[in-house]
Amino acid sequence: MSNWKVLENRFKQYLLLERSLSVNSREAYLRDIAKLNAYAELFLGNKSAEAINTRELQSFSAWIAEMGFSASTQARVLSGVKAFYKFLLLEDIVKSNPAELLESPKLSRKLPVFLSVHEIDQLINAIDRSTPEGERNLSMLETLYSCGLRVSELVNLKLSELHLDEDYMKVLGKGNKERLVPVGKIAKRLLDNYIQQVRCKVPVKKEAEDIVYLNRRGSKLSRVMVFYIIKDLAQKAGLKKVLSPHSLRHSFATHLVEGGADLRAVQEMLGHESITTTEIYTHLDRQYLRDNILSYHPRNKK
C-alpha cells in the first residue's frame, strides 16, 4: 500500500472517530486529498504527502484554479487539504504545517433562494391530497418550512425523536450534533395526521421501523426523492425559481428574521455552529426591504 493510501486511511479514521463527520463530509475530504495526490504524481515526481512544502501547495492551489473549478470548490478543496495537514501535524507525521499559510480564494456571499409566504402557500396548494403520498408530502413540506430542517435531517427523522405532546422534536444535525426544534401547530397536526392515517397503512421494512417519512415500499425516502417532489410541485405551482428542499429552510430563517426574531435563536433553531452563517439572513432581510421600497415607493413607480 502506498504512503498516500496509508495516510488517507488514517485520516479517514480520524474524521470518523475524532471529528464525528458524516459519510458525505468524509468522502468530500478524501476527494480533496485525492486531487493533491494526483497533482503530486503529475508534477512533483510522486512526492509523499509529508514531503510537500508550502510553495508546492501554492502551486497546487494555482493548478486547481487553472482546472476551471469555481471559487467555492477551490476553497473547499483547500479547506480539505488544510484539515489533512493539521491531522498530519497532530499525528507527528510532519514537524510543521505547510498548509498553514495557504490562502483560499475570496468568496462572494451568494444570497440563497427563498420563497415568500404566498409562494410557500402556492407550493403547498399544488399538492394532490387525494393520495397517501400527497398527505405525506404535505407533512414533509410543512415540517421543512416550519422547523427549518436540512433534507438529510428530514429523511432521517425518527418516530422516537418526536415529542409532539411537548411541541418539539429532536434532530440529529451536521457532525452528529443533536438539537431540539419547536414544532408549530400546523406542522404538528399534519405530522399526526400522516402518522395516524397514512404511515400506519404502509408495509414498513425492518430497517425503517423508526423512520417517520417512508416511500410506498416502506423504506426510508431518499434525499433525491425529496428534491424531485419539490421540483415537481414548483412546476405545478408555476413558480419560476429554481427550488430545492434547502429553499424551504432558507424561507423559514428569512421569515423569522423579517419578523424580528433574535439572531441567536435562529442560529440555535438552524443548528449553525457559527453566528456568521446565520447572519446571511440579515442580508436577505435588507435585500427584501430594498426590493419592496424600490417596488412600492411612489417616486420609483413609472
Defining traits:
302 residues; mainly alpha; DNA polymerase, domain 1; hpI Integrase, Chain A; 13 helices
Question: How would you concisely characterize the structure shown here?
Answer:
Helix content is 57%, strand content 4%.
What does this entry look like structurally?
This protein is mostly helical. The protein folds into two domains: 3-90, Orthogonal Bundle (DNA polymerase, domain 1); 117-296, Intergrase catalytic core (hpI Integrase, Chain A, Orthogonal Bundle), CATH 1.10.443.10. 57% of the residues lie in helices and 4% in strands. It has helices at 3-17, 23-43, 54-66, 71-90, 117-125, 132-147, 151-155, 185-198, 223-237, 245-258, 263-270, 275-278, 280-296, and strands at 162-163, 168-172, 178-182. The chain has a three-stranded antiparallel beta sheet with strand order 1-2-3, with no helix packed on it.
Strand percent estimate:
under 5%
Mean pLDDT level: 87
The Rg value, from CA coordinates, equals: 23 Å
The CATH homologous superfamily of the largest domain is called Intergrase catalytic core
Give me the secondary-structure topology.
Elements: H1 3-17, H2 23-43, H3 54-66, H4 71-90, H5 117-125, H6 132-147, H7 151-155, E1 162-163, E2 168-172, E3 178-182, H8 185-198, H9 223-237, H10 245-258, H11 263-270, H12 275-278, H13 280-296
Antiparallel strand pairs: 1-2, 2-3
Helix pairs in contact: 1-2, 2-4, 5-9, 6-8, 6-10, 10-13
